[in-house]
Amino acid sequence: MREGDPDLDLGSEFAGHVVEGVLGRGGMGDVYLAVRQEDGRPVALKLLPAELAGQETYRLRFARESRLAATLSHPHLVPVLGSGEQDGTLWIAMELVEGEDLGSVLAGGAAIHPGHAAGIVAQVGDGLDAAAAAGLVHRDVKPANVFIAARDGSPHAYLGDFGLTKATDSQSGITAPGKFLGTIGYAAPEQIQGEQVGPGTDVYALGALLYRALSGVLPFPRPRAVAVAMAHLTQPPPRPSESGPGCPEELDQVVATAMAKEPADRYESAGELGRAALAAAAAAGEPPQWQEYAI
Fold first, then answer.
1. pLDDT of residue 28
2. Rounded CA gap, 245 and 158, in Å?
3. CA 15, CA 23: separation in Å to the nearest integer?
């Protein structure tokens, strides 16, 4: 554990939960496998790390996540089950998704079937539309935040981790000037430049995720973050058919539209992007092939 963080070792008790393991670590918090004591329900317990908890801007962001995410109810969004603060540490409990995150599926440069990629993007897009309808922008759509689980015998995509969620009508005061919050490999130009974000910001990131799933590589692979940022700002969207083995050219235009530099030139919604991806895959004779992937 990092200095100042709660010592959540196996068997530790925290905020009415018993810790059973570590699920992941990230810049906006560590996530633990835990059991809720009141009913024995397994959950994903996320804590704001100590070095961020002392910064008011981050505390406000994390607290807002728990309030806003709890208002969302959609089959492709990971449900929030509870939140609070204990001993100065903010926490949020989310439904435990039994499956694998898309980042792990794509590890090592793997690409997936075009129809499968389109199906995942369509499901995540539906979830993002629900968030947008509630006035929310996720701001960190990436493979590691998409979970694939079995549901009714078929793979089912969930979008989780609203740690960087932003209300579309909120002021920018919760993000300190000059601070970039997000994942640079999937960040829209306006997000990189510190401009106003909106649903189009998530459309761009979802388009970058689609490219990653189709090609096996990031949209703009560069050795340094600043070079990646500059590519997002200045380079044309990459063509997945040129990098992805067997990726049909029909999906090139889908990625190009989703990753347009100006939000007004992108799809109007993430759901529209998902539907366009499905249509392009079908036109290329590549319908969703969920059965090829064991969950």
1. 65
2. 26
3. 18
Cβ atoms within 10 Å of 17's Cβ, excluding its own: 24
Three-state SS for 122? helix
- The whole-number pLDDT of residue 67 equals 79
Is 60 exceeded by the pLDDT of residue 158?
Answer: yes
- Domain span(s) for CATH 1.10.510.10 in the chain: 99-292
pTM over 0.90: no
Tell me 39's DSSP state. Answer: T
Helices (H) and strands (E) in the chain, counts: 10, 11
Amino acid at 6: P
Q: Which amino acid is at 169?
A: D
Query: Which CATH code of 3.40.630.10, 3.40.190.10, 3.30.200.20, 3.40.50.300 fits the domain covering 13-95?
Result: 3.30.200.20
Q: Catalytic amino acids? A: 140
Query: What per-residue confidence (pLDDT) applies to 290?
Result: 54
